[in-house]
DNA sequence: TTAGGGTTAG
């Protein structure tokens, strides 16, 4: 009897240890290694349990994709185990992370059909999903349902609500909700504060963000690297570079080691203002720390090399990305195309554009805009117009760039035509582009045309509102 | 097991 219990206990203990090992491998993105440990475990008699599979579902959803996570659910069933609420919540989180609203709803149906009742975590995720999908009204209905329903809301419920409000342009409402909750005894965590700081920074309310920063200190929490990076980014966006760099040294003096996020913020900002030497110093510093580079970090570095004209280095990084098994994203392609255009290498840009299309990024509006602008800058405005005509989607950047460049070539009538089609499609155009056309027409003797154009602009504006 | 910070163009 005792021997049996002891055996069962030691098996349980080894499964627990085994799961800790699987979890740490998964956390380090080492999914293949985790799978081989599972196989070794089975050989030694340690069978994976529901927790093991749940760890795998979460990891596959995070690092590979929802379908990969879902296939682990099948494997779990084949192994004779029944997925539980945690399995489904991980899949829901995976679907939400990828903004797959239909899949999220299907998964909800599936779990209910299988007799697994969604819990507050499931509803939190559903709410987050609607917010990510730009449906704050529906998310709000889910929120009310949680508040008035059978599940008690968790701190995450409120955090997701506040974050969703901020991300959907309702930062003031998020702040109101926050104050209201505080009056009802809600104790905010650092994440709550960071959500508000981020929301306020995004709408440029740096003063209010700093007040929240002060409140963090008063609440007994200590601002972390996320808090600092958020404010740092806001400083840089507002072109307050010196204050930004000061905050950066404060961050360092308080003992925070910069992570990839902080480095990208700083390097990106320095490159933008042309301080590439300083940016390169931060890059060297980052390399020394041994931070594992991800796609965003690579993109930041490639952008830096493109702006300094060191394309060989940029291509080396592209190779490195491939060797690492990472995949270039729309940012990488845009940065390369823009960089090549800016360096006057329009053939290289065209080649990269072809490659990008081949890789399935053919609807990359930003990259096409860069290419259109690049063609104009090397005097191939007619080719730029051809690309423009072939584009399925255009935006204010497309028009502003073409109008400016047409004016540069004194083709004011063509520029006026484009300007009007932009405004008539309900899009805005840079004020400077508008001025360039009107002034150009006037200076080249078409005063009457300029007057007419001004009236047409006014009417187009009224009609598009 | 969810929620907070980083990369592109006129």
Tell me the total number of β-strands: 0
Mass-distribution shape? globular
Order of helix and strand elements from N to C terminus: HHHHHHHHHHHHHHHHHHHHHHHHHH
Biggest beta sheet attributes: none
Helix content: over 70%
The average pLDDT is 90
Distance between the termini: 81 Å
Task: Provide the low-confidence segments as ranges.
Answer: none
If helices are DSSP runs of H or I spanning 4 or more residues, what is the number of helices? 26
Quickly give the structural class: mainly alpha
Detailed description of the structure:
This protein has helices at 2-27, 31-43, 50-63, 66-78, 85-97, 101-113, 120-132, 136-148, 155-167, 171-183, 190-202, 206-219, 225-237, 241-253, 260-272, 276-289, 295-307, 311-324, 330-342, 346-358, 365-377, 381-390, 396-408, 412-424, 431-443, 447-464. It has a domain at 397-465. It starts with a helix and ends with a helix. The model has no long low-confidence stretch (mean pLDDT 90). The longest helix has 26 residues, at 2-27. 77% of the residues lie in helices and 0% in strands. The chain contains 26 helices and no strands. It is mostly helical and 465 residues long. It binds one DNA strand of 10 nucleotides through helix 3, helix 5, helix 7, helix 9 and helix 11.
């Amino acid at each position: 009897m005792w021997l049996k219990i002891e055996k069962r206990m030691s098996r349980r203990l080894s499964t627990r240890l085994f799961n800790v090992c699987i979890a740490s491998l998964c956390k380090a993105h080492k999914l293949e290694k985790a799978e081989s440990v599972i196989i070794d475990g089975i050989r030694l008699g340690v069978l994976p349990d529901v927790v093991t599979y749940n760890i795998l579902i979460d990891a596959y959803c995070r690092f590979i994709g929802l379908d990969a996570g879902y296939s682990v659910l099948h494997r779990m069933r084949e192994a004779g185990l029944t997925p539980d609420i945690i399995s489904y919540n991980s899949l829901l989180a995976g679907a939400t992370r990828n903004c797959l609203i239909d899949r999220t709803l299907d998964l909800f149906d599936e779990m209910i059909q299988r007799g697994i009742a969604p819990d507050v975590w499931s509803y939190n995720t559903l709410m987050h999903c609607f917010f990510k999908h730009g449906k704050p009204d529906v998310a709000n209905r889910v929120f009310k349902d949680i508040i008035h329903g059978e599940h008690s809301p968790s701190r995450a419920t409120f955090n997701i609500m506040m974050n969703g409000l901020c991300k959907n342009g309702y930062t003031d409402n998020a702040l109101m909700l926050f104050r209201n909750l505080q009056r009802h005894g809600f104790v905010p965590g650092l994440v709550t504060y960071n959500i508000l700081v981020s929301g306020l920074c995004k709408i440029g309310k740096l003063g209010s963000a700093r007040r929240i920063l002060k409140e963090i200190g008063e609440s007994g929490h200590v601002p972390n690297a996320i808090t600092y990076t958020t404010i740092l980014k806001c400083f840089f966006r507002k072109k307050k570079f010196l204050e930004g760099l000061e905050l950066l040294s404060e961050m360092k003096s308080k003992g925070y080691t910069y992570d990839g996020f902080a480095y990208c913020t700083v390097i990106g900002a320095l490159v933008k203002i042309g301080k590439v030497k300083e940016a390169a110093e931060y890059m060297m510093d980052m390399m020394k720390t041994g931070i594992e580079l991800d796609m965003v970090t690579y993109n930041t570095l490639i952008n830096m090399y493109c702006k300094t004209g060191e394309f060989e280095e940029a291509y080396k990084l592209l190779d490195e990305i491939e060797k690492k098994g990472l995949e270039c994203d729309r940012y990488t392609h845009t940065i390369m195309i823009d960089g090549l255009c800016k360096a006057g290498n329009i053939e290289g840009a065209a080649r990269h554009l072809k490659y990008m299309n081949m890789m399935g990024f053919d609807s990359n509006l930003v990259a096409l805009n860069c290419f259109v602008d690049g063609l104009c800058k090397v005097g191939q405005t007619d080719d730029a117009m051809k690309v423009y005509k072939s584009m399925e989607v255009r935006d204010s950047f497309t028009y502003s760039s073409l109008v400016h460049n047409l004016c540069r070539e004194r083709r004011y009538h063509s520029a006026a035509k484009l300007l009007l089609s932009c405004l008539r499609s309900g899009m805005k155009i840079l004020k400077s582009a508008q001025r360039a056309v009107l002034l150009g027409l006037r200076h080249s003797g078409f005063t009457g045309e300029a007057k007419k154009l001004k009236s047409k602009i006014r009417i187009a504006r009224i009609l598009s509102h």
